[in-house]
Amino acid sequence: MKRGLVMEGGGMRGLFTAGVTDVFLENKIVFEGAIGTSAGAVFGCNYKSNQPGRVLRYNLKYGADPRYGSLRSLLLTGDFYNKDFAYREVPFEKFPFDTETFQKNPMEFYVVCTDVETGRPFYYRCEKGDAHDVEYMRASASMPLVARIVEVDGHKLLDGGITDSIPLKKMLSLGYEKNVVILTRPKGYRKERGASGTIVGVALKGYPRASLAMKMRHLTYNQNIRFVEEEAERGRALLIYPREELGISRIASDPGELMRVYELGRGAGLRALERVRAYLGE
């Protein structure tokens, strides 16, 4: 059976996922494929490049650096996370992404974006780990209101969490029958309709299908999590959750908070390790 890794987004809640995946990497847990949405994409790519700890190191170093992410960058460029610094200097100069290992690793790696013209999820397979692939990762993590639409290969893309926060169904469609799903919300969480969906929906009024998708996001998410839970009961998914709400902002930068959430992820990964090995048949 093909074994897959599915990683939810959630901004800096993604450091929980990074903690879990670092434990898996350190313990040689192998997947034939992985897919990530938003933070699950920009952090999860380090699984294929075999770089445990990299996500934590660069976020601790630059999380509070205004060149990395700041209101100033948002006002000047339209992106809270600065495109040039966060997606060029950091991955290719400051904390180099191991593109050679990424390319040699046979594990398939997919990211989820939202196509603002269709209002539907857009899936892209990253094979090189180069600047072109990083643009799709950036698109996957480009949260409405704090990021511009990313245009790449003729597509207009935003955060994949708008349309497919937990892309288990996509992995099943690709033939992955055993999937470990890392969630960044505790067991039983359901999204409620909030003002942000309406506000973003209005901001996307030039793209009516994306606007509708944003307004309906709470319903889409709740349908998605119910599907994931049902698949877990069928044995096609093993779920790893935080024990309680992580209590961290999507754009948090305080080193203590980043470390706290990462360590919670490591703890969850260690607790789940033998269960994951048994599930995957290792």
UniProtKB/TrEMBL annotation:
Domain PNPLA: from-to ranges: 5-172
* Motif GXGXXG: chain residues: 9-14
Map motif GXSXG onto the chain.
Answer: 36-40
Database matches in InterPro entries: Acyl_Trfase/lysoPLipase, DUF6363, NTE, PNPLA_dom, YjjU-like
**Key word Hydrolase present in the record?**
yes
**Which CDD domains does this one have?**
Pat_hypo_Ecoli_yjju_like
The alphabetized list of GO BP terms reads: lipid catabolic process
- The UniProt annotation puts motif DGA/G at 159-161
Q: Which residues act catalytically here?
A: S38 (nucleophile), D159 (proton acceptor)
The entry lists its GO molecular-function terms as:
hydrolase activity
Q: Which Pfam families does the record associate with it? A: DUF6363, Patatin
Keywords associated with the record? Hydrolase, Lipid degradation, Lipid metabolism
PANTHER family per UniProt? NEUROPATHY TARGET ESTERASE/SWISS CHEESE D.MELANOGASTER, PHOSPHOESTERASE
What's the protein name?
PNPLA domain-containing protein
The organism encoding this protein is Stomatobaculum longum
